[in-house]
Design brief:
- There is one protein chain.
- The chain is an alpha/beta fold.
- The chain is 34% helix and 23% strand.
- The strands form 3 sheets. Strands 12-11-10-13-14-15 form a 6-stranded parallel beta sheet, with helices on both faces. A 5-stranded antiparallel beta sheet has the order 3-2-1-5-4, sandwiched between helices. A 4-stranded antiparallel beta sheet has the order 7-6-9-8, with helices on one face.
- Helix 1 (6-19) packs antiparallel against helix 4.
- It is elongated.
- The two termini are 24 Å apart.
Length: 325
């Protein structure tokens, strides 16, 4: 179960509030114009005494929403739609960036059972879509096609709001060493499904991160099990060419979104030479991110892990016609 992600924290908090007898509302960012502080699908929960968690903006919108909800001014009928930043004066009042505008859907959470069902699916390793009908207020859960490269993490129409919870991206780490522990923990916060592959028994015995699958397969077999999946990420982190090169040879021949290898510039050059002699083409090598990680002067394992996740995040956020949604 991924206990790290923001969505999980918000859902669990809402369940706790409902069980204590509070009235709770869930707010979802469904549409943005211009510059917006938070993307579509961002969540905020608020309860009747003014306590709230999550975020839909930089702070001023949340303050207004909570005050209106506390004073029963939002709506007599949920779910309802609210707009902020419809004109320049309002945008300035609520601290929205120039031209920024938000459309939000507010729904009343009546009982904890539907949210608990959602968390149970996530705990079982499922990726699940929560769909809110805007006319009836009915909430339903659906299993999305996670093999599709066109899977949409969020959608909004006149009829419904649908948000995908759970991992839609899979990260495979080669090596169960110290650095992998930091990378895995940060990846869990970003809601990745994380698998660690290490055939070395001494490393298997020291691995202890909840929510991460550890497999003893050989690295090429582990990569092969992913298939040609454009929502997969493979990182080789052992510093052992016997293991890393096996994974890279397989990964660079598949439609994998991001393939990265740990190492210095010198070791990366030697790795390129080895892989070329093993039949990996120059075009395939051009897809390899090595040394992996943005150059932030990182030296310690936590810093290196941050730089690696930052580079992957930048690649995911880079506009491209063939990039996954």
């Amino acid at each position: 179960m991924n206990l790290h992600s923001t969505d999980h924290t918000i859902l669990q908090t809402a369940i706790n509030w409902l069980r204590k007898g509070h009235q709770v509302a869930l707010v979802t960012v469904v549409k943005t114009w211009g510059s917006a502080p938070r993307p579509c699908g961002s969540l905020l929960i608020m309860r009747d005494d003014g306590i709230h968690a999550g975020s839909v903006s930089g702070g001023c919108v949340e303050e207004d929403l909570v005050a209106r909800y506390k004073d029963n001014e939002l709506s007599d009928h949920f779910p309802s739609t609210i707009n902020y930043g419809t004109n320049r004066e309002e945008a300035l009042r609520f601290g929205l960036p120039c031209g920024g505008r938000l459309e939000l859907v507010v729904e009343a959470l009546i009982t904890p059972a539907p949210l608990q069902a959602l968390l149970d699916h996530i705990a079982a390793g499922h990726t699940i879509t929560r769909r809110l009908c805007l006319t009836s207020g009915e909430v339903s859960l659906h299993k999305p096609d996670t093999t599709s490269t066109a899977i949409k993490a969020f959608s909004y129409t006149e009829q419904h709001v649908a948000k995908v919870f759970g991992p839609t991206w899979h990260m495979l780490l080669i090596g169960a060493g110290h650095l992998s522990q930091y990378v895995a923990n940060i990846a869990l916060m970003f809601d990745y499904k994380v698998t660690v592959c290490d055939p070395r028994k001494e490393y298997q015995q020291s691995w202890h991160i909840d929510g991460v699958t550890l497999i003893p397969d050989m690295p090429d077999d582990a990569v092969r099990s992913l298939g040609s999946h454009s929502r997969s990420i493979v990182l080789t982190l052992t510093h052992d060419p016997k293991l890393d090169d096996m994974a890279l040879m397989e990964a660079l021949q598949h439609n994998i979104f991001f393939v990265g290898a740990l190492g210095s510039l010198r070791s990366s050059k030697k790795r390129h030479e080895r892989l070329q002699t093993l039949g990996i083409s120059q075009h395939q090598l051009s897809q390899l991110h090595a040394p992996v990680g943005l150059d932030i002067g990182s030296r310690t394992p936590p810093e290196i892990a941050v730089s690696i996740i930052a580079e992957i995040t930048a690649a995911r956020n880079k506009p491209a016609s063939n990039s996954p949604v």
